[in-house]
Amino acid sequence: MAMREIRVIPDPVLRTVCDEITTIDDGVRNLVADLVETVDAEGRAGLAANQIGVNLRAFSWNIDDEIGYVLNPRIVELSEEVQDGDEGCLSVPGLWYPTTRAWYARVEGVDLEGEKVVVEGTGLMARCLQHECDHLDGKLYLDRLERSVRKKAMRELRERL
């Protein structure tokens, strides 16, 4: 296990659609251990594999003192009810912008034994599930901002780089 360095924008790995995990081997086990250890730090809610430079569909979470992971996650249900609130990202440090997400989200994937896993939640957990699945599809929360807010965010981002 190792605390891994977080990749930040404009690293191209963050814009890459991650590959499905087809074989659960020692490399995948080590990836999960690193994801879990790296997400277990103050202020971290979730971490996708590409945020540590690995182009595989896996993420970990750290919500309400619960740490977990899922391999090959896919969103299978979102509520019509939405939540608004500021969202940030470890790969876009220091920027927080209002982002609309579904209030409830349900994700299905597998664990290290290849067994089906269902992860679901409301509020912050739902936001995390959606945010991390976006990462695995090569998207950042900035892509979901309303046009005028996104313009402001991108300007601020350029000033910081």
UniProtKB/TrEMBL annotation:
One of its GO terms (biological process) is translation. It comes from the Bacteria. It catalyses: N-terminal N-formyl-L-methionyl-[peptide] + H2O = N-terminal L-methionyl-[peptide] + formate. Binds 1 Fe(2+) ion. Keywords: Hydrolase, Iron, Metal-binding, Protein biosynthesis. Its EC number is 3.5.1.88. Its cofactor is Fe(2+). GO terms for molecular function: metal ion binding; peptide deformylase activity. Fe cation binds at residues 89, 131, 135. The active site is at 132. HAMAP family: Pep_deformylase. Removes the formyl group from the N-terminal Met of newly synthesized proteins. Requires at least a dipeptide for an efficient rate of reaction. N-terminal L-methionine is a prerequisite for activity but the enzyme has broad specificity at other positions. Belongs to the polypeptide deformylase family. This is Peptide deformylase. It comes from Xylanimonas oleitrophica.
